[in-house]
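2 proteins. here.
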Amino acid sequence: MKNKYQSQDFYLSSFLIASGIKLNKYFKTGRITTFLFNDTKEIQDLISDYYTNNALVNPVTYGQAQKNLKSIIHSNTNLNSNHTHTHASQWNS
């Protein structure tokens, strides 16, 4: 079973996607969107770089990742907290 990393931080999630980390799943609870990624050493290193201001990412790629996540956040979907919305591939348990 793969470890999972989840974040409600829009900017961190955008950075991870722009850095090549695949968004595996997301779900909405009310107005909050939670993004799920596979938790690896690479993702932990990127998170560390992000929070210590040592992160480097292509600004155009980062902007596109933000647009994609905004699309998810603002999508016209059922916001029932018991309903899970998936993106890309199915989340492996």
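next one coming up
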Amino acid sequence: MWTVGLTGGIGSGKSAASALFEQFGICVVDADVVAREVVEPGTSALNKIIAHFGSTILMSDGSLDRSKLRAIIFSQPNEKTWLESLLHPLIREQILTQLKHAHSPYAILVSPLLFETDQHQLVNRTLLIDLPKELQISRSSARDNSSADQIQKIIDNQLSRECKIDKADDIISNRHDFAYLRDEVERQHLHYLELANEQ
């Protein structure tokens, strides 16, 4: 399946862009959704996480308390490394399975860590939804009720904006209104249809 990797920093508008691709009939596989699925209650990954971190990282319903776990791994790099070595292979395997079953002219893989992980190797082309850092922080704060400090930490743990711009094949600026984003997604969609047809 010819695949586009869609990425962008926190608050950049990846979800809005991927929803527009879905409206054009394109199958979207979201790495964040897959990452939640592999740690659902009863999975071997969640059991290993509990064994490693203890049951305090669980919510009252037995599901993973992601914000508590995030706080641990952002303050302890060795724990982040341990968690990534457990989860990244499982996430990759599940992504490949979902892409294989995609029924559209091409597929979209949405991943905030497309360039930071080896997920960019799973795609034929990359699309960056770009936003200046100040807008990332203000939009994320409004959406998640997170502090600017928390959002800055997440941004600091991702590749720099400049690096992403340098690595991306295609870029959509999301500093304008939704109508602009929709037009840009449609333009890229038509381009990707052509490229996928050439394969």
